[in-house]
Amino acid sequence: MGHQYPSSVAEMRGVKAEGGWGVVNTEEAEISYTSELSGAIEGRLWDDSDIPALAKMVDRVHRHGALAGIEPAHLGAGAANNYSREIPMGPSARPIDAFEPVHARAMDKADIKAFRKMHVDAAIRAKKAGFDIVYVYAGHDMTTLMHFLSHTRNDRIDEYGGSLENRVRLLREVLMDTKEAIGDTTAVAIRLAVDEMKGAGGIAASAEGREIVEMLAELPDLWDVNVSGWENDSATSRFSEEGYQTEYISFVKSLTSKPVVGVGRFTSPDTMVSMIRKGVMDLIGAARPSIADPFLPKKVYEGRIEDIRECIGCNICVSGDFLAHPMRCTQNPTMGEEWRRGWHPEHIAKKANDDSVLIVGAGPAGLEAARALGQRGHKVTIAEAGDAVGGRVVIEARLPGLSAWKRVADYREYQINQMVNVDVYLQSSLTAAQVLEFGADHVVIATGSRWSTSGIGRTNRLAIAADAAAKIMSPDEINAGQSPAGPIVIFDDDYYYMAGLIAEKLRAQGHDVTYVTPAADVSHWTHHTMEQERIQTKLMQMGVKIVPLHNVTHIGAESVELACVYTQKTHKLPCGTFIPVTMRSAIDTLYQEISASSGGALKSLTRIGDCLAPGTIAAAVYSGHKYAREFGEPPREGVPFRRELPALAKD
Ligand code: ADP
Ligand code: SF4
């Protein structure tokens, strides 16, 4: 949320401090207008006018006794500077990392001097804002300090290039400058990516990563170590386990007497304790686990382990960064809403009336509505047609790599089981008559959605023409375990994870699978969750045939016709079963029937989650939570949340 939503940031971080985190850090904070990532929204420390916004965050963090940390960063050849229009600069003259027609120029000695001063000035501003810990940031392959370290980015022939000693020089100088400037009262931490996960060609824990730590061992007050790039550091649960960075960072503690912190999507207290006991790190770091549950430390401290709302490793939070909107979280619907809606992750207003609620459907939307209404003290009944709660989450968690997603249901099921005022009925597929007979004051329909087989979606506004003998199966049928006849053609006009996962699942079963998409690459939206490259690599390695930039125009009994999205030129592919992954349709018949027959018997009838409009699991959880928050409260006029507008200049 960075510099655009300062009060949202302050409140969100204050809540984390309240939840027991010992230190609460900012995101990367740009140290100068000459290196800015406009488009994305980072923190800013450009000049003194940025101090009040950061000071507000520090104040909220200090109120709860935690320390506040800041990560000043110069993004160099990683940022296009589209707002300031300054020419980016880095160790060497190169095109910048983003796919933009911009080159960075090589820094000369005057630039290096100015760069060192930028860091010092930013550190002084950070101290003025009240921060207790100020970072020197060489993580993620995103900052100039890390770019200097890399022999693949730094081909200088002066004392800042060539040998590793030379490439480390600038990092050492900035560390010493910062200590000199603010080190008397403020801790100076270093964040270093000790392994780029590129093998011997890059910075590696077994080679240069280790040597850098050896060279700077006692200089910083705190070592914060990770792997780079960001897609490796914040890998999803589909591709990595909790603690996945351990093998790369575990050497650091043996080389320094200073405290070491690391990350690894830690949500299990046992794993955290073992990290400390084994001497891998002294302090447990977390971004995503603290987003999913800002109160994780307090729950550990109080022995309420079952109450931890564990991160599922989906990176919906990360997508907010790429799409430049405030952060959302699948598990924590209050994330980003702390200030603007006044939502607290642990507290909710007590019920405003004694009305009872019947919820039909125990997917993420229904479960979250039941949990939060139950927390408010309402009498809630939740009826679920299936044998278990969780809806789509239970089904999708069986897809390759998604087992952690079941935590969305597990957390809520456990919470609801503790509540005497919430009753869950399984194997209870309700009809409209049964719902009305039940006699609840309010009825919530959370019956979800199903994948459509028509082919209608973003590319095809009308159903794809199909022969009567064509064999078409939906993702729901595949997920229910039905066997398609090969060869299989999957058509991805959805662009998120489902088509790629079905391709992976069916290929692993030995099927001949072709994946067709109008996009240029596989599971295109997963660029925003930093998974795209891994997904496509995996499918290619498994032998899934990929046909990008094509639409499906006809489905026959033994073949499908494809058309190039540019030239419309067609060709045919053999096809025994066609699986369209294009759109989902709300299952809202029950809602329509009750609407038509209730005759004023109910105080309210409401659709939530995918039954209202199919979306992400995060959207379904949010929908259920929002319903519970607003239940019985007076409706708000106008924009239902606070906004922070830019201060208007006087002239
Ligand atoms: P959402 O993501 O909106 O929570 P899901 O599809 O995950 O939606 O969950 C919907 C749940 O509703 C499923 O578990 C399904 O079994 C259940 N359901 C659908 N129709 C009925 C019904 N008539 N009675 C009870 N449960 C139903
Ligand atoms: Fe974890 Fe997903 Fe929430 Fe991010 S959005 S914190 S990955 S559960």
Write the layout of secondary structure elements.
Elements: H1 6-18, E1 23-30, E2 43-44, H2 51-62, E3 67-73, E4 89-90, E5 94-95, E6 103-106, H3 109-129, E7 133-138, H4 144-149, H5 164-182, E8 187-195, H6 208-216, E9 222-227, H7 230-233, H8 246-249, E10 260-262, H9 269-277, E11 283-284, H10 288-292, H11 296-301, H12 316-323, E12 356-360, H13 364-376, E13 379-383, H14 392-396, H15 407-417, E14 422-425, H16 432-438, E15 442-445, E16 449-451, E17 465-466, H17 475-479, E18 488-492, H18 498-508, E19 513-516, H19 532-542, E20 545-547, E21 550-555, E22 559-564, E23 570-574, E24 577-581, E25 584-586, H20 589-597, E26 604-607, H21 617-630
Helix pairs in contact: 1-2, 2-3, 3-5, 5-6, 13-15, 13-21, 16-20, 18-19
Written overview of the protein:
This protein has 651 residues and is α/β, with parallel strands linked by helices. Helix content is 31%, strand content 18%. Strands 2-1-3-7-8-9-10-11 form an eight-stranded parallel sheet. Strand 18, helix 18 (498-508) and strand 19 (513-516) form a beta-alpha-beta unit. Helix 5 (164-182) packs parallel to helix 6 (208-216) and helix 13 (364-376) runs parallel beside helix 15 (407-417). The structure holds adenosine-5'-diphosphate and iron/sulfur cluster. Residues 288, 291-292, 311-317, 329-331 line the site of iron/sulfur cluster.
- Give a count of the beta strands, DSSP E runs of length 2 or more: 26
Structure ligands: adenosine-5'-diphosphate, iron/sulfur cluster
Q: What is the approximate shape?
A: globular
- Low-pLDDT sequence parts: none
Order the strands across the largest sheet as they lie in space: 2-1-3-7-8-9-10-11
Profile the largest sheet. 8 strands, parallel
Q: Could you tell me the strand content as a percent range?
A: 15-25%
Tally of contiguous helical segments = 21
**Alpha-beta content class:** alpha/beta
What fraction, in percent, of the residue positions are helical? 25-40%
Q: How much is the average pLDDT?
A: 97
Radius of gyration of CA atoms, rounded to a whole number: 27 Å
First CA to last CA: what distance? 28 Å
